[in-house]
UniProtKB/TrEMBL annotation:
Residues 2-98 form the GRAM domain. It comes from Paenibacillus segetis. This is GRAM domain-containing protein. InterPro entries: GRAM (IPR004182), PH-like_dom_sf (IPR011993). It holds the Pfam family GRAM.
Length: 107
């Protein structure tokens, strides 16, 4: 269950697919706050997943195309080299928010 921490503000909440592998995907809610990024899978689906990381740990944020042609993916790479891929309808907004949070955490 998603709960904001003290001093935390929700910047974006959107339905997304966590792209676990070439054929494995988990549907859930992707939330970005001014401190962290959280993905929580929908409970009624077989594949479950929970991802949470601090925005200050983000190394890169880049677009990717699913099915080679569909421009709906975002790949987030952490400083630890862990990668997460999400597919969603508003990737440009997500990229903009994450890059802004990454920049503000380094200043």
């Amino acid at each position: 269950m998603f709960i904001l921490n003290d001093g935390e503000a929700l910047l974006m909440s959107i339905l997304a697919y966590y792209h676990k592998s070439g054929i494995e995907q988990v549907i859930g809610d992707l939330k970005v706050t001014n401190q962290r990024t959280i993905f929580e899978s929908k409970q009624h689906y077989i594949l479950q997943g929970h991802i949470e990381f601090l925005n200050k740990d983000i190394q890169t944020v880049e677009p990717f195309n699913s099915f080679i042609l569909v421009p709906n993916g975002v790949k987030i790479t952490l400083k630890s080299e862990q990668e997460y891929k999400f597919k969603l309808t508003d990737r440009e907004r997500l990229i903009h928010i994450l890059l802004k949070q990454k920049e503000s955490s380094t200043t």
